[in-house]
From TrEMBL, chain A:
One of its GO terms (biological process) is transmembrane transport. InterPro entries: AAA+_ATPase, ABC_Ni/Peptide_Import, ABC_transporter-like_ATP-bd, P-loop_NTPase. GO terms for cellular component: plasma membrane. SMART domains: AAA. It comes from Mesorhizobium tamadayense. Residues 8-257 form the ABC transporter domain. It is found in: Cell inner membrane. This is ABC transporter ATP-binding protein. Belongs to the ABC transporter superfamily. GO terms for molecular function: ATP binding; ATP hydrolysis activity.
Automatic annotation (TrEMBL), chain B:
PROSITE patterns: ABC_TRANSPORTER_1, ABC_TRANSPORTER_2. The keyword Repeat does not apply. This is ABC transporter ATP-binding protein. InterPro entries: AAA+_ATPase (IPR003593), ABC_transp_ATP-bind (IPR050319), ABC_transporter-like_ATP-bd (IPR003439), ABC_transporter-like_CS (IPR017871), P-loop_NTPase (IPR027417).
UniProtKB/TrEMBL annotation, chain C:
InterPro entries: BP-dependent_transpt_permease (IPR050366), MetI-like (IPR000515), MetI-like_sf (IPR035906), OppC_N (IPR025966). One of its GO terms (biological process) is transmembrane transport. The chain crosses the membrane at residues 41-63, 105-131, 152-177, 225-250, 270-292. This is ABC transporter permease. One of its GO terms (cellular component) is plasma membrane. Gene3D superfamilies: MetI-like. PANTHER family: D,D-DIPEPTIDE TRANSPORT SYSTEM PERMEASE PROTEIN DDPC-RELATED, OLIGOPEPTIDE TRANSPORT SYSTEM PERMEASE PROTEIN APPC. It is a multi-pass membrane protein. Keywords: Cell membrane, Membrane, Peptide transport, Protein transport, Transmembrane, Transmembrane helix, Transport.
Length: 280, 248, 306
């Protein structure tokens, strides 16, 4: 990991939505930087973690306003590039995996064709070569019978298989930064670990930067190198995953504490005492 | 000790798909019993078959010594109530909390409605201020509290819980689990709780059953599970998975 | 009323924690009202319909002449003037007065059709949707049979069987206009039938009748109101059509369709005889359409709750 130069720099990121009842600030001044490492963003619903990911990817809803002192990917200012350049970056160098593959895969196209199309929009390759590389990619995400899965439609595969296909599709163009928004929350626990293992290996092999967005502090801390904890649109704490036990912010500690653990009998469970100053 | 709820050789078939393949279990009075499994294991179907929402094709279900027939009588619902997984989907979008809680009382012709509603709201920690709100004016945790109040208002002896906290944030989950434990202690309820999370089940239940593909894998006590004294590989896998990610 | 009291009243209505059943209900209506008035055209539609109601209620005061008795000797087919704003017809009757009185018949038709057809459609649709199976199949096939005929032709057949007259016209229109409402209600019912909140009520031990009546119907009503309002224009036109064909209201009743029919003979020379009631139908139909659009914004259950 040689992060002399940061892959992604985020400084004072704001995402604001105009709604019927006024402005809603989903993200309020988030700053962090990312090298070729695994960074976890953890928070509860409404903490702004997903909106942060979407803002980096450039896929916020049209009524959202994104502003930042700095939002740079590999030295490119993401907020000042043209929409077409942004599109080119997206998919080519930055990729995103969402929670439910059912909604992000095209239901009327076979999985294989979607991967091939993705590849061919980013690189000039022959059909035969694209197919070969798609099959390789399916193999890389540990799909046992890639030739069969290649010709299946998304609804014909299980959730875990769909998520692997999604990862294959996102990785085919060889992105340098991957944003994974709750990539395993819709999956069964055992499948969840398989998918994480695949993701872990690919990130290590390809030297990608990974932003792993999740509500599950324990999962994130076991998977990532660094963790950013968000609350009410702000970063309350940034720390190394290995040092999570020594977290200082009461929110992080509360979040760690309130989950039931096998072998630790605590009745009642400690609950989070939310302080208004955390959100200030 | 007598069985509050017993299920014998229960089969549920949906369009030729056998969702439950001859499942038996016995929940003692006052006990909290857990059902663990992944999606498609049939754990939720088992709850739904007990309530009559899923059709049982064979097998018997006995509640407090009474064998249930094909259709449920009204009295059954005063013994058994259920809390659903998704608090966003289980409250009627056009009804106030007050109306939601009044409905079961009206159906069963219970007279002291006012008092019961106030008590139920107090019991789940919401208080009077929430009585006339609509579901969209409540947070996920508050909604689930309303759902619990609704289930308790008929004063059942058995509560079926279908992943009651899986749609909630971790901190809210702790609050709801504490609440459930508290009402169980106070009302001496019997729980049958479904979850995919072993930690929650060992926290809440004394005994549990692991299910896979509509069949029973094994039955354990919580302390057996905590001590890793399990006999099936599948259970061991689940245990390992629940400890988070381990780099290989 | 000072600015502060208006402000505090609005806050009371929009409160997140209503203290009584009434406040909750008023708050909900207020939100719908605000959404409705945000649509200017819808507000215009509402004003048109309110004007129709006022005119119908005060017809006796507003109409300067009799609607049925004319001055055959002096006032046949007069052009619009200060004395006769919309002119007079072939029997010397003041057209303005006839239109004012005619608004009563228009309202009569619209209201009767709405209170007959909408409940039938709602009942058939929700019962079919909730019961499913054979009940659904039979009810929906009956609905299909009604839908297979053009509305006006079917209404004609009914009026022919029942005999001409405005009551029978209303009945015929009502009988022919419920099937779309049944379809809508059934579709809505199917989407909510398997939701957890309906299951939760089943688990309370509620009877199917109670579930349909108290839990499913309220959810169908808003889309039904929208549809009925948008259909009003069609109903007015069908009633006018029947009147025009001589099968609806019978002369000398000042029904707008009948008036157009009798003006048809002079349409080239005395255009106002048919033109004025035609214009009245146009305005009222437009009003209902605009109102329906606004209601769609205000009541649509899919557009989120607040």
């Amino acid at each position: 990991m040689n992060d002399d130069k940061a892959l992604l720099e985020v400084e004072d990121l704001h995402v604001t939505f105009a709604t019927r009842t006024g402005l809603v600030q989903a993200v309020r001044g988030v700053s962090f930087s990312l090298g070729r490492e695994r960074l976890g963003i953890v928070g509860e619903s409404g903490s702004g973690k997903s909106q942060t990911g979407r803002a980096i990817m450039g896929v916020t809803l049209p009524q959202a306003k994104v502003s930042a002192k700095k939002l740079a990917f590999d030295g490119i200012d993401l907020l000042s590039v043209s929409p077409s350049q942004r599109r080119a970056l997206r998919g080519n160098r930055i990729a995103m995996i969402l929670q439910d593959p059912k909604y992000s895969l095209d239901p009327v196209m076979t999985i294989g064709r979607q991967i091939v199309e993705t590849l061919r929009t980013h690189e000039k390759v022959s059909k035969a070569e694209a197919r070969e590389r798609a099959l390789d990619m399916l193999r890389a995400v540990q799909i046992r019978d890639p030739a069969r899965v290649f010709d299946l439609h998304p609804h014909e595969v299980s959730g875990g298989m769909g998520q692997r296909a999604m990862i294959a599709m996102m990785l085919i163009a060889g992105p340098e930064l991957m944003i994974a928004d709750e990539p395993t929350s819709a999956l069964d626990v055992t499948v969840q670990l398989d998918v994480l293992n695949i993701l872990d290996r690919l990130v290590a092999e390809r030297g990608m930067g990974l932003i792993f967005i999740s509500h599950d502090l324990r999962l994130v801390s076991s998977f990532c190198d660094r963790v950013v904890v968000m609350y009410a649109g702000k970063v309350v704490e940034q720390l190394k995953a290995s040092e999570l036990r020594d977290a200082r912010h009461p929110y992080t500690r509360g979040l760690l504490n309130c989950m039931p653990k096998i072998g630790f009998e605590r009745h009642p469970l400690p609950v989070l005492d939310r302080k208004p100053e955390w959100a200030a | 000790m007598t069985a509050a709820l017993s299920v014998e050789g229960l089969e549920v078939v949906f369009d030729r798909f056998r969702a439950l393949k001859g499942v038996s279990l016995e929940v003692r009075e006052g006990e909290s019993y857990g059902l663990v499994g992944e999606s498609g294991s049939g754990k939720s179907t088992l709850l739904r078959a007990i309530t009559g929402l899923a059709p049982a094709s064979s097998g018997t279900i006995t509640v407090n010594g009474k064998v249930l027939g094909k259709t449920r009588e009204k009295a059954f619902y005063r013994e058994v109530q259920m809390v659903f997984q998704d608090p966003y989907g289980s409250l009627h979008p056009r009804q106030t909390v007050d109306r939601l809680l009044q409905e079961p009382l009206a159906i069963h012709g219970i007279a002291d409605g006012e008092k019961r509603i106030e008590r139920a709201l107090d019991e789940v920690g919401l208080g009077k201020g929430f009585r006339f709100r609509y579901a969209h004016q409540l947070s996920g945790g508050q909604r689930q509290r309303v759902a619990i109040a609704r289930a308790l208002i008929l004063e059942p002896s058995i509560l079926l819980l279908d992943e009651p906290t899986s749609a909630l944030d971790a901190s809210v989950q702790a609050e709801v689990l504490n609440l459930l434990e508290e009402v169980r202690r106070r009302r001496k309820l019997t729980f049958l709780m479904v979850s995919h999370d072993l930690a929650i089940i060992t926290h809440m239940c004394e005994r549990l059953m692991v299910m896979q593909n509509g069949e029973v894998v094994e039955t354990l006590t919580a302390s057996q599970l905590i001590g890793h004294r399990v006999s099936e590989d599948y259970t061991r896998n689940l245990l390992r998975a629940s400890e988070g990610f381990v780099r290989v | 009323m000072s600015v502060e009291t208006i402000q505090s009243r609005r806050e009371w209505l929009l409160s997140d924690r209503p203290a009584s059943r009434m406040q909750a209900r008023l708050g909900r209506s207020y939100v719908a009202w605000r959404r409705f008035t945000a649509n200017r055209l819808a507000f215009v539609g509402l004003l048109i319909i309110l004007a129709l109601v006022v005119v119908a209620a005060l017809a006796g005061v507003l109409a300067p002449y009799s609607a049925t008795v004319g001055d055959l000797k002096n006032a046949r087919l007069l052009a619009p003037s200060a004395a006769h704003w919309f002119g007079t017809d072939d029997l010397g009757r003041d057209i303005y007065s006839r239109i004012v009185y005619g608004s009563r018949w228009t309202l009569y038709v619209v209201i009767l059709v709405a209170i007959i057809a909408a409940p039938i459609g709602l009942l058939v649709g929700t019962v079919a949707g909730y019961a499913g199976g054979w009940t659904d199949a039979i009810l929906m096939r009956v609905t299909d049979i009604f839908l297979a005929f053009p509305k006006l032709v079917l209404a004609l057949a009914f009026v022919a069987a029942l005999g001409p007259g405005i009551e029978n016209a209303v009945l015929a229109i009502a009988i022919t206009s419920w099937p779309p409402y049944a379809r809508i209600s059934r579709a809505e019912t199917l989407t909510v039938r398997n939701s957890d909140y309906i299951k939760a009520v089943q688990l309370m031990g509620a009877s199917p009748f109670r579930i349909v009546l108290r839990h499913i119907m309220p959810l169908c009503i808003s889309s039904l109101i929208i549809r009925v309002t948008l259909d009003m224009a069609g109903i007015i036109l069908t009633a006018a059509g029947l009147g025009f064909l001589g099968l609806g209201a019978q002369p000398p009743l000042p029904e707008w369709g009948t008036m157009i029919a009798s003006g048809r003979r002079f349409i080239l020379d005395q255009w106002w005889v048919a033109g004025a009631p035609g214009f009245a139908i146009l305005i009222v139909s437009l009003g209902f359409n605009l109102l329906g659009d606004g209601l769609r914004d205000a009541l649509d259950p899919r557009s989120g709750d607040q």
